[in-house]
């Protein structure tokens, strides 16, 4: 891989190579010594123009477990607040001698712009760009689903994943739609009409406006956070009505298949898109998603910075 910008054009072969590498890294580091010397001498910058906890810490942990040096950059308190452009910021960091940039930015397409501009030579990983994509989140979600459905280890055909809620503002929804469908899964988007983006009919997913009509058919229910910070208008009458129509309540939890799982990219709005009963239930794999994010991002960084896909049982040096 040269960069990781999107899941839209990612082949199933590449995706499974990343997932296989992550699984092998998880096996190797499943013990007291979680650190590998693989990326010793490499420098990775977390270049975050938006607030983040899970993604930034996950990338930092992933890089450090591979023995890379990590520089964390936040737009707050930096020259960005004085008007410095993405180009100038990136080139300043490039001059320090870096090997990869993990970029989160509020503008859709920012990661691709950085990767294709010629401003820097470092590899670029998209850690979320506007409402566009979040490819490593989709990969960790696929990794989590795969671990719970071992009969679908090489093919997600027959699995039905529902992505529910604020599709309009969600980069997670788009990345998952493309990746999961590429792996063979059936994907259904569930949301009120006001939270459906233009062009969703071109995504490789079905569309439903009624959660109760599909909840019993789903193998994985992925609840999305209502992103009120991106909402300048009223997209639904009230939080109470939204929770009633589209929240994962205890009653809906009981309607799910026996082995179906509950997912959420975090952070959660408990009581809005997901109830405490659902978030804390035995079906919930939300904390597993967080843990899996580290090994998946280790795999991405490893493969970007010169490593080859790891065959099962092989060792990393």
Please explain how this structure is put together:
There is one protein chain. By secondary structure, the protein is of the alpha/beta class. It has 2 domains: 12-134 and 290-304, Rossmann fold; 135-289, 3-Layer(aba) Sandwich (Rossmann fold), CATH 3.40.50.1370. Helices cover 35% and strands 14% of the residues. The protein has 11 helices and 9 strands. It has a 5-stranded parallel sheet with strand order 7-6-5-8-9. Strands 2-1-3-4 form a 4-stranded parallel sheet, with helices on both faces. Strand 5 (160-164), helix 6 (171-182) and strand 6 (186-190) form a beta-alpha-beta unit. The two termini are 19 Å apart. Residues 312-317 have low confidence and may be disordered.
Q: Can you give me a brief rundown of this structure?
A:
The protein is 35% helix and 14% strand.
